[in-house]
Amino acid sequence: xxxxxxxxxxxxxxxxxxxxxxxxxxxxxxxxxxxxxxxxxxxxxxxxxxxxxxxxxxxxxxxxxxxxxxxxxxxxxxxxxxxxxxxxxxxxxxxxxxxxxxxxxxxxxxxxxxxxxxxxxxxxxxxxxxxxxxxxxxxxxxxxxxxxxxxxxxxxxxxxxxxxxxxxxxxxxxxxxxxxxxxxxxxxxxxxxxxxxxxxxxxxxxxxxxxxxxxxxxxxxxxxxxxxxxxxxxxxxxxxxxxxxxxxxxxxxxxxxxxxxxxxxxxxxxxxxx
Length: 274
Ligand code: NAD
Description:
Elements: E1 2-6, H1 11-22, E2 27-32, H2 44-47, E3 57-58, H3 61-64, E4 70-73, H4 77-90, E5 93-96, H5 103-112, E6 117-120, H6 126-142, E7 147-154, H7 164-176, H8 181-184, E8 185-187, E9 201-207, E10 213-221, E11 224-232, H9 236-249, E12 255-257, H10 259-262
Parallel strand pairs: 1-2, 1-4, 2-3, 4-5, 5-6, 6-12, 7-9, 8-9
Antiparallel strand pairs: 7-10, 10-11
Helix pairs in contact: 1-9, 4-5, 6-7
The structure holds nicotinamide-adenine-dinucleotide.
Nicotinamide-adenine-dinucleotide binds near residues 11, 12, 79 and 99.
């Protein structure tokens, strides 16, 4: 399958190009980054130390949108919103890893999925997606008897908080318990906060050094607590998962999917379409 990478010069973009080149079923057919980048025009293969490929880094998705069957976009929300529109107009599939999209941008993505196949996931690692499933079970069993806290840590360059993965973990738990995350989430605490309210879901964020991504959901009762944790030690875990999603998306003409669908883990509450 011909795959294009958007945000190709970024931390994830380079990993995604490596993952595409390493997979025997995918071919790196296009690479895009932001206009003005000194790397525009450079050979995509040489950017990741794999020798010349004959694929030049383009400065606009519109120029290369027909060169690939599916694009993978790990950029910034404003850019992703535009790329959704460009792919919709061209009828090209899109795998989105960008986090921090607002409600309007997410609604536009949903609308575009009426015409094209889109996979949108806050975390493409297989381990994290297994954790989403484990969280459903834990929340269903432990229910309203426990206090629930989501703690996450990432590298110092991350620009959004809490992470998209932490928010999704909170959503999975909230949906399982019939709560609305918008109403029950508490982001950080300071000063005289009063006693904790049982129905809230707390979020705490650490930004430090080069941490690739740690997430823990704590279910704490009187006398015992359960913690479900995931620690990513390499971005390649996301890269491999996103390329797997791109291949899977090739079987679909339209619709909005997430990594739970790709992995066959989709249940009642974990995905977008449900
Ligand atoms: P980064 O800053 O290293 O890379 C982003 C790249 O996007 C840069 O090269 C930038 O120039 C490029 N870009 C910006 N605007 C663009 C545009 N209009 N057109 C083309 N390219 C554009 O960031 P990163 O660490 O690679 O993370 C990128 C995104 O991926 C973030 O939102 C991050 O949270 C998310 N992320 C998601 C997962 C996941 O599994 N879903 C995993 C890791 C990171």
